[in-house]
Amino acid sequence: MARPVDIGFDTPFAEQVDFFRRKLNLPTARWDDLRHEAHDRAFVVAGAMRADLLADLSAAVAKGIEQGTGLKEFRADFRNIVEKRGWHGWTGEGTQAGEAWRTRIIFETNLRTSYAAGRYAQLTDPDLLQRRPYWKYIHADGVMAPRPQHLAWNGMVLPHDHPFWETHYPPNGWGCGCRVTAVRGPKEGDKTAPPEGWDAINPKTGAPVGIDKGWAYAPGKSVANELRGIVEQKAAKLPEPIKSAFEADMKSVFPAATGFEEQKTAKAAAEWAMKHNLADFADYTGIKPEVANAWNRSIYDHLQEFPELRKNLEFIGSAQAHSRQYADNFRKKIVEEAIKKGIPADIAEQYARKLVKTSRVPGTDYAHSRSGIAPGISVNIKYGKAPAAFTDKLRHDVSAGWHPVGCDTIRSVVDHELGHQLDGLLELSLDSKVKKLYKEAMAQGMKDAVSGYAAKNINEFIAESWSEYLNNPTPRPTAQSIGNIVRSRYAQRRSRENNAGNTG
Question: Which domains does the chain have, with CATH numbers?
Answer without folding.
Answer: 11-122 (no CATH), 124-224 (no CATH), 266-316+363-497 (3.40.390)
